Amino acid sequence: MQHFMDYFNDYRGLPRSIYFIFLSRIINSVGAFVGPLLTLLLTDKIGLSTAEAGVFVTMSTAVFVPASMLGGYLSDRFNRKNTLCLLTLFQALSYLACGFLQMSMTIPYLLLAASFFSSAAQPASGAMAADLSVKSNRQGAFSLLYLGTNIGFAVGPLIAGFLYKSYLPLLFIGDAVTTIVSVIVIFLNVPETRPEYDIEEEVKSEDSERAEEGSSLQALFRRPQILVFGIISMFLSFSYSQVHFSLPLYANELFGANDGARVFGMLMSTNGVVVVLMTIFIIGKTKMFEASTNVAMSAVFWAVGLGMLYYVSSLGMMVLSTVLWTIGEILNVTNVGVYIANNSPKSHRARFNSLYWIISGTGQAMGPTIMGKYLLNNPIKNVWALTFFIALICSAAMFFFSINEKSRMGNSVEKQ
Questions:
Q1: In the chain, where are the structural domains located?
Q2: DSSP 8-class letter at 377
Q3: What is the Cα–Cα distance from 122 to 75, expressed in whole angstroms?
Q4: With bands split at pLDDT 50, 70 and 90, how would you rate the model's confidence at 72?
Q5: 410 pLDDT tier (thresholds 50, 70, 90)
Q6: 13 φ/ψ sector (left φ>0, alpha ψ -120 to 50, else beta)
Q7: Nearest-CA neighbor of 246 among 65, 87, 385, 359?
Q8: What is the DSSP letter of 132?
Q9: Pair 34, 153: CB distance under 8 Å
Q10: Which has the closest alpha carbon to 25: 164, 121, 136?
Q11: How far apart are CA 361 and CA 355, in angstroms?
């Protein structure tokens, strides 16, 4: 029993604010109804073709670039908490408006606005988590927040599937209400976290989180490892984007439109349940490895889990596939944030967060458009073969990067 309880040690003694952010993420993700069903909303309810839906999903993802740049700048220059709360509130209001409109092309544009505000809020959220943690407890803090998101997500898609079929307006209204409640939790319980520092003292430090002078691009080029890490992650994001674009379409092809939505909701709930049940144990077993090594291992699980869908047509095997790629997701999400936080200057923390996600998010944005056009002339099962090879190549590249990182750190220690 004691050995079992040891897995929870990383979550004990974290700053009080981290636990409130954890609660906020649970509430927000319980009501995250719209995102998982976006492709089906566009094709089934709005009437877009697969290719048109792919372009729109890409647009929804691409707004991350200007939104994240704006959010990163605001979060590093002004109050992080107020930036996060205000932008998230605008996201909620965009969803709320959708709940009172008829299905038309107005809905997709409001969803684009919601995506913009959500993306703009992310740098503040990531920077606050990094501000509130240190290297020794950061993996525990980041994995707890990820766990909070998925505790809600284990339930949310099941509710979303039900609302999609019978009470579509409540899909948008419910998402908006839970988002507003999550903002209230942050606003009332989490203080401002933006760090204060003396730049003259910081530049003398050897700490990887020391403050930097100059623009975010100048600071980034002083830390090229983040750029390389981001480029590899870009191709990994391309492969993972098929979970939310091609997988619901594949479920529709195998089980029909109505049952396909329910099956996809079930798979997303399986994803959430696996995260809730396994994150603690996976973190416990892999925390001795470098963050970049764990990201490389995540790519192997994505390659196998998504690649096997080429041969799969039964619900049971699709659930097994979901378990495997979810393990990859756990390894990826809980280590990417740690790597970026550990290598980002505190003076540019939110902007580095946004720059990294812009680089890696390019793959997420390109995935639906490229695969949407590819599907015009190819069977959907071929997507999974392509995904397998892309993820496998990324895994090899990230393992090589991890080896170089260990060598670089070793040389740095010797010079000191």
A1: 17-192+214-405
A2: S
A3: 10
A4: confident
A5: low
A6: left
A7: 385
A8: T
A9: no
A10: 121
A11: 9
Residue-wise pLDDT for 278-323, tens only, equals 888 888 888 888 888 999 999 999 999 999 999 888 888 999 999 9
Position with higher pLDDT, 4 vs 182: 182
Best CA proximity match to 65, nearest among 367, 355, 350, 369: 355
Tokens 């599937």 correspond to what residue? Answer: 161
In the numeric block, the tokens 């089934």 are attached to: 44
Q: How far lies 222's CA from each of 215, 219, 227, 291, in Å?
A: 11, 5, 10, 20
Residue with tokens 């959220």: 125
Sign of CA dihedral 228, 229, 232, 234: negative
Give the Cα separation of 109 and 103 in Å (integer). Answer: 12
CATH topology of domain 17-192+214-405: Growth Hormone; Chain: A; (1.20.1250)
Task: Answer yes or no: pTM beyond 0.90.
Answer: no
At residue 194's C-alpha, the angle toward residues 193 and 197, to 5°, is 125
